[in-house]
Amino acid sequence: MNINTNRSRAWWLLFPSVLFLLIGFIYPVGTFLLESFKVGSNIGLSNYQTFLTDELNLEVYWRTVRIALLVTLVSAVVSYPAALAIMQLGAKYRGLLTGLIILPLMISPVARSFAWLVVLGREGLLNKTLVGSGLLTESIPILYTESAVFIGLLQLMLPLMLLSLTSALENLPKDVQAAAKSLGANGWQVFWRVILPLTRDGLAIGGTLVFTGCITAYVTPALLGGPRVTMLATLLYQKASVTVDEAATTVISVVMLLTTLAVNAALRSRSSRAA
Amino acid sequence: MKNTNVYVLGVVLFFLIAPFTIVFMTAFSDDNSLIFPPKSYSVRWIISVLQTETFASSLVTSLWLGIGATVIALLLGIPAAYALQRYRLPETEWIRTALTSPLIIPGLVIGVALLRQFVLIRDGSVNLALLVGHAALVLPYAVRVVGASLANLPRDIEDAALSLGATRGQVFWRVVLPNVRGGVAAATVLAFINSFNHVPVSLFLTGPGVTTLPIRMLLHMESSYDPSIAALSMLVILFSIFFVLITERLLGLSRYV
Description:
The structure holds 2 protein chains of 2 kinds.
Chain A: H1 3-34, E1 38-39, E2 42-43, H2 46-52, H3 55-89, H4 91-105, H5 109-120, H6 125-132, H7 146-170, H8 176-182, H9 187-198, H10 200-216, H11 219-225, H12 232-242, H13 246-273
Helix pairs in contact in A: 2-13, 3-7, 3-10, 4-7, 5-7, 5-11, 7-10, 7-11, 8-9, 10-13, 12-13
Chain B: H1 2-27, H2 44-51, H3 53-86, H4 92-100, H5 107-120, H6 126-151, H7 155-163, H8 168-179, H9 181-197, H10 200-205, H11 213-223, H12 228-251
C-alpha cells in the first residue's frame, strides 16, 4: 500500500477531530492568549509590565509555585515507600490497593475539599482532637491558611504520583534489588543508586502531573484557602469575574500556561537523559 | 525497611480514604449546622437534598453535559485513535499532541477563553460553549485510552479479514470495534466521570438557568454551612463508585488508568 492512500485514509479519520479542536479549542484559546499582547490597538508587553510590577501579583505567583513544589516533593517522598510496599505485598493485593488509590481520583474535588472543611475548621475535628488531647491549649487557625491548601492539594494529587511510581516499579526487572543487595549494598544504597535512577521516568511523569494539577486547581484553594490565600487560579477567577480586568486575565492565563509548560519540559528532559 | 514501607502505605491510604468517612457520617447528621461528629443521626438532610429543585435541575444539567461531551469525544476520538495507531505518518505526531493538548491547558483558561471569544465577542450560546469545552476536555481520554487498546490488537487480524473479502467498513465494525470494546468502555467511564466532576471549565460558562452540579455545590457552600452539602457529596460519591465498580466488574478499568 503506498503512502498516499494511507495518508488520505488517515486524514479522513482525523479530519473531524482536528476540525473540532481547531474551532472549539485551539482558535479560542490561541486568540485569547494573544490578546495579552494587545495594548489599545498596538502590540506590546505593557500588560505584562503592569502585572509583574504589582507586588501582590508576584506574591500570589510565588505562593502558587511554592505550594505546588512542596506538594510535588512531599508526594514523591511519601509515594516511594508506599509504592515499594505495594510491590512487596505482591500480586494478591495489588488490584485492591490500586483500586483504593484510583477511587479518590474518580470523586468530585468539591466533595473532597468539603471533607477537609470539616476536619480543618476552627471547631473542626483536628483542632478538637489536638485541644482534647492537651497538645494545644486553644484551637489554632488551620483552615484558610497555606497549610490547609497544602493538605487539600496533597490529598488530591498524591494518587497520581503513587500510580506513576507503582507502574515504574512494575517495569523494574525483579531481581535488580536482590542483585544489588547480594553485592553488598544496604537498603539506602539500593534505593539511591538502583531504584531511584531506574524509576526516574515514572518520577518525572508523576511530578509533572502533580505540579501541573496544583498550579491549575481551582476548587481546593477557593474552598480551603479562602480570601487570604490567593493562588493563581483563584486570582484568575477574581480578575475575570469580579473585577473584570481583561488585561490581567489574559496575562495570568499566559503565565499559568508557561509555568506548567516549563515544568513539563524540564522534567521531560531530565527523564530522557537517564541512561 | 519493609515494615516501614507498609506502615507508610497504611498512612497514605488512611489519608486518601478517611475524609470520605467524614462526608458519609455528616450526611446522616440530624443537626442544623455542620458539626463533626454529629450529635444525632437521621436521613433528613439526604431527603431534603433529593427534594431541592435547584440541586435536581443541576444534576440533570450535569448528566446531559457528561453524556453529550462523552458521545462527542468518542465519535471524534475513536476514528482519530485508529488513524494515529495504524498510519504512522510524519504529521501524526503533531496531531497526537494537538488532540491531547486539552490535558495540559488549565481548565480555567479554556473556560474563560470560550466565554470571551465565543459568547461575549461572537454572541454564541453559553450552553454550546459549555458542551464544546467539556468535549474538548475529555477528548484526550478517548484518544489515549482507545489508542492503548488498539496498540494491543494485532494488525494481522485486520489483514486476515481484508484478505477474506471484508470491506474496510466491515473490518472496522466487525473486527476492530468488538476487540477494543474494553478500551472504549474505559474511555467512556473516564470521560463521563471527568466531565461530571469538572469545575474550572464550567465556572465561567454557567449562569442563571444552567448550572452544573459541582458549581451548584460550590455556590451553596459559599452561602450556607449545613449538612446538605455532605448529603449531596455522599450521593455524588456513591454514584461515581457505582459507575466505576460496574465498569471494573465488566471490563477491568484499572488496566487503562
